[in-house]
Write a structure and sequence with these properties.
Elements lengths: L2 E5 L2 E5 L2 E4 L3 H12 L4 E4 L4 H8 L7 E3 L3 H6 L6 E4 L5 H13 L5 E4 L5 H13 L3 E8 L1 H7 L2 E6 L4 H11 L2 E2 L2 E2 L9 H30 L4 H11 L7 H11 L22 H12 L4 H13 L2 H10 L11 H33 L6 H7 L11 H10 L10 H23 L5 H14 L5 H12 L12 E3 L10 E3 L1
Parallel strand pairs: 3-4, 3-6, 4-5, 6-7, 7-8
Antiparallel strand pairs: 1-2, 8-9, 10-11, 12-13
The protein binds adenosine-2'-monophosphate.
The site of adenosine-2'-monophosphate has 11 residues, from helix 4.
Length: 490
């Protein structure tokens, strides 16, 4: 794949792609591309990182150092392809501005960072107006995925796809002989899909955290016992990367103290914003995604140390006194976890379905689930069922309604309710399990309490309401006595 050009007797090897941003993700992507036979030119704001790569992990490989943007552009085959792996936000705009000075119409800029999709929409337009192409590519899989095969979600200028498809599909994770990388859609769709992936990841992690918390407090299980449970769960329908690494985490012993390391880890959870963005988007588009939002809120509460310290003194936690059959309860928690997980994914896919309409992206939901089967953090066997559900019915209103998920939810319901009830009774917070159950019960209930909300709105704000027994919009003078109440069609 090397293009060797003889210029005045000097042999120059042109690179297939230029990559800017040599933090761990960027560096690993470069090595991944090189491993697949591509030559990569690299640049970084801090030039020492270029030297470090060339003299360290990249020594002797087809990696070309470029110490200026001009040098980078001159090293690339045309149309030039430059991938940005820099911090999201202003650094992306800065590099785009500088690249526009050295690139030509037809060249391609790819942003592989976690950019906000609306920024990607703006940048796609900016480049297309200048005759260049822009791709916002969600890349998931962490450091290891970047090196050995991530899930890649590219969207933006469709004209760019034929030029980058070979490279991206070669370096992506492969499942059943298919790459976890496919064209998503126009402008910001790739970054949007990655954002929702991360929102689902927040919910997934929250739900696993709750399962661990319940086994710890209600069964008194130690880390080793829970490690066994997670290893077993990973053999069944919960089989996934996050369940697998939870088992590994539980098995890790601290060298200094001999204790399970997890029990020494501080409980203030960090976040970088994609879960919050997903929740904000759900609110903006009017999509119910409570389990994803609970994942974000739970992290926020975990970090509110001052409030937590005072509340812990004011309302002391009483150690639960329950007598449970361990095997039975572990199975009930597994069922609650799986049912809640189905609800979280239903919320995420509902958001994707609405966004697809709102932004005119024509997203292929089954294909997206397929891309997440490998490489990314939420990778799981389970995603095949989502692909199958959309294959069977591309217009599926909600994932909960797909035959496989219906059956599972019906089968797991009883245990799910018991687990949530017991947790509530014992003062153990399970916002993920409980919000998923409330979502499920709300969506299936034929007549919700929101008739009262409508009546209240009409009472104080004359917002009008609809009636179940006749068409039209009505307003009532609710505060007047029974006899003189009027319902006026408005
Ligand atoms: P650095 O090595 O010079 O810090 C992830 O942080 C990547 O984004 C790194 O390659 C980092 O470059 C780059 N980066 C972060 N902020 C930047 C900025 N303001 N301008 C240019 N590059 C930046």
């Amino acid at each position: 794949m090397q293009e060797i050009i003889k210029k005045q007797g000097v042999i120059t090897i042109k690179a297939d792609l230029g990559l800017i941003g040599l933090a761990v993700m960027g560096e690993n992507l470069v090595l991944n591309m090189e491993n697949h036979g591509f030559t990569v030119a690299v640049h970084n704001r801090t030039p020492e990182k270029i030297d470090q790569l060339l003299q360290g992990r990249g020594a002797g490989k087809n990696i070309i150092g470029a110490y200026t943007i001009e040098e980078l552009a001159s090293q690339l085959k045309t149309p030039r392809k430059v991938m940005l792996m820099v911090k999201a936000g202003e650094p992306v705009d800065l590099f785009i501005e500088r690249l526009l000075e050295v690139l030509e119409p037809g060249d391609i800029i790819i942003d592989g960072g976690n950019s906000l999709y609306s920024d990607t929409i703006r940048r796609t337009k900016l480049l297309e107006d200048r005759g260049l192409f822009y791709v916002g590519a969600g890349v998931s899989g962490g450091e290891e995925g970047a090196l050995t095969g991530p899930s890649i979600m590219p969207g933006g200028s469709k004209e760019a796809w034929p030029h980058i498809q070979t490279i991206f599909q070669a370096i992506a994770a492969q499942v059943d002989g298919e790459p976890c990388c496919e064209w998503i859609g126009s402008d910001g769709s790739g970054h949007y899909v990655k954002m929702v992936h991360n929102g689902i990841e927040y919910a997934d992690m929250q739900l696993i955290g709750e399962a661990y918390f319940l086994m710890k407090h209600l069964l008194g299980f130690n880390a080793e016992e829970m490690q066994e449970v997670f290893e077993e769960w990973n053999q069944g329908e919960l089989d996934s990367y996050l369940i697998e690494i939870t088992g590994h985490i539980l098995g890790k012993v601290d060298q200094d103290t001999g204790q399970p390391l997890l029990e020494l880890v501080g409980d203030g959870a960090g976040q970088k914003g994609t879960g919050k963005w997903t929740s904000q988007e759900a609110l903006d588009l009017g999509v119910a995604a409570p389990t994803i939002a609970e994942g974000v809120f739970a992290r926020i509460i975990s970090g509110a140390y001052d409030q937590r310290e005072l509340a812990a003194k004011a309302f002391p936690f009483k150690t639960p006194q329950v007598d449970l059959d361990p095997a039975e309860f572990v199975e009930a928690v597994r069922q609650a976890l799986f049912a809640s997980k189905i609800c979280a994914y239903s919320q995420g896919f509902d958001l994707l379905a609405q966004a697809s309409k709102e932004y005119d992206w024509n997203l292929n939901l089954g294909e997206i689930a397929k891309l997440w089967r490998g490489g990314c953090i939420i990778r799981a066997q389970f995603l095949q069922h989502i692909t199958d559900a959309y294959d069977q019915n591309p217009d599926l209103e909600n994932l909960l309604l797909a035959p496989y998920f219906q059956e599972t939810l019906k089968g797991n319901q009883e245990s799910w309710r018991k687990v949530v009830a017991l947790a509530v009774e014992q003062g153990l917070p399970v916002p993920g399990f409980a919000s998923a159950l409330a979502y499920f019960d709300s969506i299936r209930h034929p007549y919700l309490w929101t008739n009262l909300v409508q009546a209240q709105r009409d009472y104080f704000g004359a917002h009008t309401y609809s009636r179940r027994d006749r068409p039209g919009a009505f307003h009532t003078q609710w505060q007047l006595g029974d006899k003189v109440v009027t319902s006026d069609e408005v």
